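Backbone shape codes
____________________
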Amino acid sequence: MSEVEGIVQGHRDGHGFVLQPGGNDIYLSQQEMRAVLHRDKVRVRVVRYDRKGRPEGRVLEILERRKSPIIGRLLHESGVWLVAPEDKRYGQDILIPKNATADAQAGQVVAVELTEPASMFSQPVGRVSEVLGEIDDPGMEIEIAVRKYEVPHRFSPETLAQAAALPDRVRPADKRHRIDLTDVPLVTIDGEDARDFDDAVYCEPFKKGRGKTAFNGFRLIVAIADVSHYVKPGEPIDDDAYERATSVYFPRRVIPMLPEKLSNGLCSLNPYEDRLAMVCDMLVSDVGDVQAYQFYPAVINSHARFTYTEVAAILANTRGPEAAKRSDLVEHLLHLNDCYRALLKARAARGAVDFETTETQIVCDENGRIEKIVPRVRTEAHKLIEEAMLAANVCAADFIQQGKHKSLYRVHEGPTPEKKTTLQNYLRSLGLGLSVSDDPTPGEFQAIAQATKDRPDALQIHTMLLRSMQQAIYTPANSGHFGLGYPAYTHFTSPIRRYPDLLVHRVIKGLLSGKKYQLDPNLLASEPTVTMRKAGKPVKAAVATPTGATRVTAADVWDIAGAHCSANERRADEASRDVEAWLKCRYMRERLGEEFGGTVTAATSFGLFVTLDGLYVEGLVHITELGGEYFRFDEARQELRGERSGVRYTIGSRVRVQVSRVDLDGRRIDFRMVREGEPERPLSRNGRDKPGERRAASSAVDELASVQETDRAVKARTRKAASKRSAGGGGGAGRKSTAAGKTRKRR
């Protein structure tokens, strides 16, 4: 049998996996998991395969213990101090000697450092290294999340000192060798609550020539904050920025990638202040094709700070009060809108996928608790800016390709063979007469979305189309962006909050100056060994250690940087979803027993996920709550069907539920079905009483798959484990089965 090395990923049910490239992870039983913890590095031997050919392993050696603190609640049961980890994937409670509690009180949230690892016959032992406070303290859910997901949230002293030494304003020396665009009426358009403005836009009609060779279109200028002028390779700010890789957005709080002096100061395109920018200057035809472009460093001065709401109101009524306040800029906004309409033509021509989904926004009160959850309205102003940013990103990718320079692309591949087959079977089962080919194109997806948008089951169909797609990643191996329909695409427009964008700026500057930008391997010195995919095959690259014993090659350094940025993007998303889930659980805890109408957003073998009307909160109706008959899950149709009654529950079905249980620790909300019999049919997308819809994240099913034990059972098991330990008995603590979602530029 083969032996492999990998990182352990625990599961809330007690078992675990050793992660492998390509997704063929090795299963570890509960028995094997007794001696290891989530995120340990191990060597395992594959000992058997199950009926589906999935490997099961046995731990041979623990190569490296994860040293990061573990966050959890301090409990005092039967005279024994325990910490129940917040991240249930750790699977075991941690024993705390009575002299190692750091004076923390029972029930408080603490950080624990392990002093004795887990073994086959004993629980892990640790000491309290930090007391975070009470679970109900305002903002505690964020403090937990940043530590639980190991989000760097404190800048190094060297970074803070370097940031403090930066100038407060753009200096004359900084403006040398730059195009002066301060007289061009560039403007920023962002949300009402935005604090960092990293892009400004301007558009004017452009005509050239006559007859058949005449060009009619627009000159579109997209100016992006020149972060690379201030953040240099090898400096402390750059080291911290790479470690974070992205800003993390929580309700009422942001963990920025860059210190505030840069993100909200020098690099923010604040109105009426000179700022350094990298400019993408484009000529866009009247059918939306970018005929020519150029990049250059510039000095700009934003003529206004617009909000999406304000621009949408001006475009809707050029003689209204909002337009009157900005009369000198209305004409330029109209030109932007005309250019946007042209870009939409090109979008339709290339068949880019564009599903109508409703995103939500959490509105918190002054104590950080949810006041309400509202749909985030996506206006024409949002779409206008999005198309302008997409055009600049495509030009950046093309410029780098033409220059034959290594860089990071934003790659979104088509469906995997498994997902494609599932989608084909689903569409065939509906009898639509529509399907996707064996080599699908984004145009096929968009055609299905358009053809079914007025059907009662449109939500179900569009959800299945979305779930069939892969996740976008950063990689130097360009294979295009499937969803947007681009052969090459990258991220150029948000260097304040995304490290890949900063790298792209450096590459473009290098090409403009005739010099190649070399990504410094020393930047990766703190990285563990990274397994990545290169040209469709797994590749393992050694990474430089602090002692310099092992070095990466120049060819591999971009792969590692891409894998790092992709992983940290996912980490940021997971941390944000965790906080939102905690807030929603706290919000719904006050509504226990209340009844709501809702829409089924996912059907699984173990139950239904339902999103409540008006509240936009999702919970689980377990299959045992559907009635006294047997329900069978039809994977092809993605539905639960009652064998006796024939009752069908599919995505988009209307139901009425009661809030029956809220598990704050598990981030889980349970519903009980109120209406018996046939569920309401899905409402028409253009119906008068269209329900609130939200794209169900594909990870929601995985995150909520396990059935929760009651709090009483958890405490009883904890007391049993504690009593065994105090009596000198061995054995790990009982495992608790628990279950644990910025903006236009995210693509």
Q: What stands out?
A: Confidence is low (pLDDT under 50) at residues 528-550, 680-746. The longest helix spans residues 554-589. The first strand starts at residue 3 and ends at 10. Residues 158 and 236 are 6 Å apart (CA to CA).
